[in-house]
Write a structure and sequence with these properties.
single chain; mainly alpha; about 625 residues
């Protein structure tokens, strides 16, 4: 074998390799039956196909997952980037840019709370009404979050949406209502509704929850300094004097203290506060008017030179000029305004607000011809309705003075003024105030009815209608107004008492009126109106002695008020306490009382006469002791 040449190795061809695989698959059985596939082909190729299919599916799923996850990662990154950018712009005070960025984010994610927070904050800092809408969106997404509801209520109050503010507060869970923040917002809502007693109660609750919070202390003190309770007003005065040394509250505290000093005729204290206020960095032109008010009361001789010094300063700015003229008109100095007008450049007076103040001065001094000339031509912009209204006033007053009839011309001008308000509540309010000032009863009634449809102005409108209907003795309409006032401010005890008493007098909703009388007394047992109303209710229910017992706890000076005296006289006459009844009948007779009270007084007189005519009738052996007749100083 050593001598034989070894055959070199050669590569196996593809055909040979296929043959080998074929034979290997057959094993020792080299001959297959006809039509039978090899075992390798039957097992290997389907398995291979399944593996490939599975691999493709997995690859597809992984790819889709990668694309989806990658897209989400990118979107999250983009969202965070926009949020950080918007927040940074907001912090830098670039409010427009911050809003634009937040809106871009909100377009991609409509329920993004972070974007809504930024938009709400930016709108709030710009004092835009959009604040309310944004806060409402947040509150809708977080209906159980108390802070979201309180923020919405605060925003709604800022823009006069009282109904929305009340709804937001009502959504705050009971468990979250004993928080200082809730009491503060509830207090401002009560203020907007004209319920000062409720406002004080809520502010006091806020201070009780957080006694170290200076803002809450300031709110309560600024309110209580006007209290008839000497203890409360003294404590408020001390708080405000402390806060007058704290920068954020300095000017506000000094204003309140100055007004208080003038009101109490404490001129030395008022002088001190006036000087401090004028030296304050935050002093406004309105503060100078407060000082003028004080100096006029302090010394007329010093006041006049000061006023002449203020006039040139005011003339530099149309708003300040109008403010000074308005102040003078309201303080019996309209004649001085008329003289001053002649010395001022016409450019200072040709447009509102100074043109309005000038018209008011002419009207106040009853210079109708001058007022006619002043308002005959010109364009007062958004206040054009006032120009036409003053023209109407001049027309009616001048013709009435001359004995003529101004109805047709006046009505034409006044209707034009009403149309020019363009259904804007603020304009309708200004026109209603003007109509009331000049005692245009029909015109003012119609305007106040319109104004009452606007929540922020509703309380003022209803109070104006209340005075109007009381003056005209239209008790049916008065009862309707009291019901609306009660709906607007359901917890205000004096309104509840008025509604209950008038209902009892008119015999309307009698059962409910008795319930309201008790509710008013339960809320404010020391308030004379509430106590008298409940005593009257008890008497009508056959519980006269209980009513007299309630009246026996009232202060003597308040019992002898002509209105309260009617009810005291009625209950005493009912109890046959003739001496006391006569005293209160006289007190009521000497005053001006309402028609429904006149009927009650006549009823008391009838009972008194009947009891006097039957001396044998048993007189109450245990008369209820009422407070004695007040002295002159008590009156």
């Amino acid at each position: 074998m050593r001598g034989r040449t070894r055959e070199p190795m050669r590569a196996t061809t593809g055909h040979e390799m296929a043959e080998r695989i074929k034979h290997a698959g057959r094993g020792t059985d080299h001959q297959s039956s006809p039509g039978r596939e090899p075992f390798f082909q039957r097992r290997f190729w389907p398995a291979r196909l399944a593996v490939l299919t599975t691999a493709l599916v997995i690859a597809f799923l992984l790819g889709a997952l990668f694309v989806s996850y990658g897209s989400k990662l990118y979107e999250d990154w983009r969202q965070n980037r926009l949020l950080h950018r918007a927040a940074a712009l907001l912090q830098e005070g670039k409010l427009t840019e911050a809003s634009q960025t937040a809106r871009e984010l909100l377009a991609r994610h409509p329920d993004s709370l972070q974007a809504l927070y930024i938009l709400a904050e930016a709108a709030e800092q710009q004092n835009l009404e959009e604040t309310v809408w944004r806060r409402e969106q947040i509150a809708r997404l977080l209906p159980k979050d108390p802070d979201s509801q309180l923020n919405l209520a605060s925003a709604a109050l800022r823009f006069g949406k009282l109904d929305l503010a009340r709804e937001a507060l009502d959504r705050v869970a009971t468990a979250d209502r004993d928080r200082a923040a809730f009491h503060v917002v509830a207090g401002w809502l009560a203020r907007a509704e004209g319920n000062l007693a409720e406002q004080e109660e809520q502010f006091a609750a806020a201070v009780k929850k957080e006694p170290s919070n200076d803002l809450y202390q300031f709110n309560l003190a600024a309110l209580r300094i006007h209290s008839s309770d000497a203890g409360k007003s003294a404590k408020a005065r001390d708080t405000l004097q402390r806060l007058s040394k704290v920068a954020p509250y300095r000017t506000g505290a000094l204003r309140a203290l100055l007004n208080d000093g003038v009101g109490r005729n404490d001129l030395a204290a008022a002088d001190n506060f006036a000087q401090q206020l004028q030296m304050s960095p935050e002093v406004t032109f309105g503060d100078y008017l407060l000082c003028l008010n004080f100096y006029r009361k302090l010394d007329e001789k010093k006041f006049r030179p000061l006023l002449e010094k203020v006039k040139p300063f005011a003339a530099r700015n149309s708003s300040d000029l109008a403010s000074l003229m308005d102040w003078m008109n309201q303080n019996a100095l309209a004649g001085d305004v008329v003289k001053w007008i002649d010395k001022l450049p016409s450019a200072h007076l040709g447009s509102p607000p100074t043109s309005i103040a000038a018209a008011d001065a002419y009207a106040t001094v009853k210079n109708w011809s001058r007022l006619k000339r002043w308002t005959r031509t010109g364009m007062w912009g958004d206040s054009e309705f006032l120009r036409v209204a003053y023209q109407a006033i001049a027309t009616r007053q001048s013709q009435s003075r001359n004995g003529g009839s101004a109805n047709t011309e006046f009505e034409t001008l006044w209707r034009s003024a009403e149309q020019l308000t363009n259904d804007q509540p603020e304009h309708a309010l200004a026109l209603a105030r003007l109509a009331s000032k000049w005692e245009f009863e029909n015109e003012s009634e119609e305007l106040w009815q319109r104004v009452a449809e606007n929540p922020p102005m509703r309380r003022e409108a209803l109070e104006a209608l209340r005075r109007l209907y009381r003056t005209k003795n239209e008790t049916g309409k008065l009862y309707d107004v009291l019901q609306r006032l009660h709906e607007t401010s359901p917890n205000e005890a004096p309104i509840i008492a008025d509604l209950a008493r008038l209902g009892l007098n008119l015999e309307q909703n009698t059962e409910r009126s008795h319930q309201l009388a008790k509710e008013a007394y339960d809320r404010a047992p020391k308030e004379v109106n509430c106590a008298v109303t409940y005593a009257f209710s008890l008497s009508r229910l056959g519980r006269n002695s209980e009513g007299l017992a309630i009246m026996g706890n009232l202060p003597p000076d308040q019992l002898h008020d002509q209105h309260a005296a009617v009810y005291v006289a009625l209950l005493l006459a009912e109890a046959s306490q003739l001496d006391g009844a006569q005293e209160y009948i006289t007190a009521a007779d000497n005053g001006k009382i309402y028609p429904e009270e006149k009927k009650l007084l006549d009823e008391a007189k009838t009972k008194f006469a009947a009891a006097s005519a039957t001396p044998s009738q048993a007189i109450s052996s245990t008369p209820v002791e009422l407070s004695p007749t007040p002295t002159a100083s008590q009156r």
